[in-house]
Amino acid sequence: MAAHSGCATGVPRLMDSREDLVDRLRRGETEALGEAYDLHAPAVLSFARRLVGEDAAAHDLLQEVFLTLPSAIGSFRGASTLRTFLVSIAVNHARHHVRGAARRRAAMSRYGHEDVDPPSTPEHHAERADLARRLTAALDELPLDQRVAFVLCEVEERTAGEVAAIVGAPEATVRTRVFHARKKLREKLGGAR
Question: How would DSSP label each residue in 101-143?
Answer without folding.
Answer: HHHHHHHHHHTT----PPPSSHHHHHHHHHHHHHHHHHHHHS-
